[in-house]
Automatic annotation (TrEMBL):
Gene Ontology molecular function, alphabetical: serine-type peptidase activity
InterPro entries in UniProt: 6-blade_b-propeller_TolB-like, AB_hydrolase_fold, Peptidase_S9_cat, Xaa-Pro_dipeptidyl-ppase/CocE
Record-given protein name: S9 family peptidase
The species this protein was found in: Microbacterium radiodurans
Annotated Peptidase S9 prolyl oligopeptidase catalytic domain residues: 424-629
PANTHER family assigned: PEPTIDASE S9 PROLYL OLIGOPEPTIDASE, PEPTIDASE S9 PROLYL OLIGOPEPTIDASE CATALYTIC DOMAIN-CONTAINING PROTEIN
GO BP terms: proteolysis
Pfam families from the UniProt entry: Peptidase_S9
Length: 641
């Protein structure tokens, strides 16, 4: 029989080390003959991204050994840092110098691109015997210059990487940003996605087409009024792409020569598409038999097969969050995502729908420890607010009679991101101890259509705060949470919302900010080029909207900080530099607000090292126990200044 114990202090076998090990971070996957290859961030190796492979006999091995690290810096968030040819040759971007290298398994890596400081490659794609990539070159006193390039891969073409004969050929340019190159079946035409400042790729983009080898022939095949994404050729003159003229991202069919209007393949009140934060992201894949495999999102993710008539058939799939199609070949698909308790990679048989795990995908604990999400919609001042509530879940414990549980309210980053209702290992870490988690898709999140996403336009620091507060109040009003023990946590843009909520509402009794933004003007001045104009849409253009930046920034209202705050920061963060966290810390010191500031050496925007992930998670638990007055057995206490 479960023991009656105070919420927050329940004994749990789910340690922070377990949560870290279960938080699998995949970085691409591909079929290579009868093998399956995938990229994986290894927390025990400081987050190094290794490429692994599973042979037909089920054995696995590392293809890309240390010290090589397949990570791109294009757009700072990278993505597409490796690809593999049909004959099993690995091409990857090495984090150390951002050069593209070639590796035959068991051999030595060879550099293909010149050694040029400030030059980055990403979005690698092997198509029709051609290695395509996005190249980014930093420039003194100007924004980086970006092109889509073809990289020579034959030994004779790539031998000289320092002289005049360059192994890199520009095949597309002319825009501030380029992504998702796709080569037609005959190799004659190239399609890609382009956009320019101040737009972000979920605001407005253009899909462009050019003759391969003739960048000057580029033309737009979408009108630039919407956020069109992921062009994929299905014949020499016809493409599929994602577009949202109705307010929902759906798959469209389009004649590349402009002879016919784009036609929705299978219209749905759900999104096939999302924020293009990471190069190489795929939300759908055309199949050789004319069907389309797609991910549809309305709250949670769903995998569907669309037949040539447009009929969509849902496929049973264990993951309902962060689902991404990695590759398709020979009647099978490789699909990644987050399932309850663990992220994973699976194969899907497209004939019978059967699913087989390749990596991860199932927690190594009893399901009784994994909470089930409750989808919650509350009325907020700006419209409905969507969230997922995860109640305290422990087969060996229940709360004391008459006690309501504390809740940790999570605010995702982006802010144009999305959470999909799957309890990951970090959620289970808290819920197994008697702390509920409320994961909020505030206005501005993807997954609910364009109008929901655009709710945040010009209103960052207002709508997000109001929506998160409304969701937290709704949970408390239903009698599901202790309204006096609500904490709020977020990272990056989510950290901004944490800080803004603490200075503008009285809903939360504590806050946890992971590399959060405290000064919007400083962010606009200091951040990297990909997001350099992001705030134009979220707050307003500078200098015209400078007063709004000052008014919205939490650091402009330091006297409003009143509740304890935990600040977690990486010292190598180029997106939100440590100066932001240190300015918040200084404000808390001046106001006499209890706080702790932890700076992690060698960490950037998002923590990757095992020791960091474990320490941060245990620090959060200790902090909540200290503030809300419950014991945290097995975790070192935290000191607040």
């Amino acid at each position: 029989m479960p023991e009656q114990l105070p919420y927050g202090s329940w004994p749990s076998p789910l340690t922070a080390a377990w949560a870290s090990a279960s938080a699998l971070r995949l970085d691409g996957a591909a079929f290579v003959g009868d093998e399956i290859w995938w990229g994986e961030s290894l927390p025990d190796e400081a987050g190094r991204v290794a490429v692994m492979r599973r042979r037909a006999d089920g054995s696995s091995e590392v293809v890309l050994p240390a010290p090589a690290n397949a990570r791109s810096r294009v757009h700072e968030y990278g993505g597409g840092a490796w690809t593999v040819s049909d004959d099993g040759i690995l091409y990857f971007v090495d984090k150390s110098d951002q050069r593209v290298r070639r590796l035959r398994p068991g051999g030595e890596a060879e550099a293909l691109t010149p050694d040029e400081a400030g030059t980055h490659f990403g979005g690698l794609r092997w198509q029709r015997g051609t290695l395509l990539a996005v190249r980014e070159r930093e420039r003194d006193g100007a924004s980086p210059e970006r092109h889509i390039v073809a990289i020579a891969t034959r030994s004779d073409d790539a031998a000289d990487t320092t002289g005049d004969a360059s192994p890199v050929t520009v095949v597309a340019g002319g825009s501030d940003f380029l992504a998702q190159p796709a080569l037609s079946p005959d190799g004659a035409q190239l399609a890609w996605v382009a956009w320019d400042h101040p737009d972000m790729p979920w605001d407005r983009t253009r899909v462009r087409v050019a003759r391969m080898g003739d960048p000057a022939s580029a033309r737009d095949i979408t009108d630039g009024a919407t956020a069109a994404l992921q062009p994929e050729w299905v014949s020499d003159d016809e493409l599929l792409l994602l577009d949202e003229p109705t307010g929902r991202w759906n798959v469209y069919r389009l004649d590349a020569n402009g002879h016919d209007a784009a036609e929705a393949v299978s219209p749905a009140d759900a999104d096939t598409g999302g924020g293009l934060w990471v190069l190489g992201t795929r939300w759908y894949a055309p199949l050789a038999d004319g069907r389309i495999l797609a991910v549809r999102t309305h709250g949670s993710d769903e995998l569907v097969l669309i037949d040539p008539s447009g009929r969509a058939v849902p496929l049973p799939f264990p993951a309902t969050s962060r689902v991404q199609i990695e590759d398709v070949a020979n009647g099978r698909a490789l699909v990644s995502g987050s399932a309850p308790g663990a992220a994973g990679l699976w194969t899907v048989d497209l004939a019978d729908g059967s699913v087989s795990a390749v990596r991860g995908g199932a927690p190594d604990i009893d399901d009784a420890w994994i909470p089930h999400a409750r989808q919650l919609t509350v009325d907020g001042p700006h419209g409905p607010v969507h969230a997922f509530a995860y109640p305290p879940t422990n087969p060996d414990a229940v709360g004391d009679a008459g006690e309501l549980p504390p809740y940790l309210v999570w605010v995702h980053g982006g802010p144009t991101a999305h959470v999909g209702g799957t309890a990951d290992s970090k959620i289970a870490y808290f819920t197994s101890r008697g702390i509920g988690v409320l994961d909020v898709n505030y206005g501005g999140s993807t997954g609910y259509g364009r109008s929901y996403r655009d709710r945040l336009k010009g209103q960052w620091g207002v709508v997000d705060v109001d929506d998160v507060a409304a969701a937290a109040r709704g949970l408390s009003d239903e009698g599901l949470a202790d309204g006096a023990r609500l904490a709020i946590e977020g990272g990056s843009a989510g950290g901004w919302t944490v800080l803004a909520a603490l200075v503008s509402t009285d809903v939360f009794g504590a806050g946890i900010s992971r590399y959060g933004v405290g000064d919007a003007r400083a962010l606009a001045a200091e951040t990297h080029d990909f997001e350099a104009r992001y705030l134009d849409g979220l707050i307003g253009p500078l200098p015209e909207a400078e007063d709004v930046y000052i008014e919205r920034s939490p650091l402009s209202r330091p006297e409003r900080f009143r509740v304890p705050l935990l600040l977690l920061q990486g010292d190598e963060d180029a997106v939100v530099p440590p100066a932001q966290a240190e300015a918040i810390r200084d404000a808390l010191v001046a106001q006499g607000v209890p706080h702790a500031y932890v700076l992690y050496a060698g960490e950037g925007h998002g923590f990757r090292r095992t020791e960091t992930v474990v320490h941060a998670l245990e620090s959060e638990l200790a902090f909540l126990g200290r503030v809300f007055g419950f014991a945290t057995p097995g975790v070192a206490p935290i000191e607040l200044d």
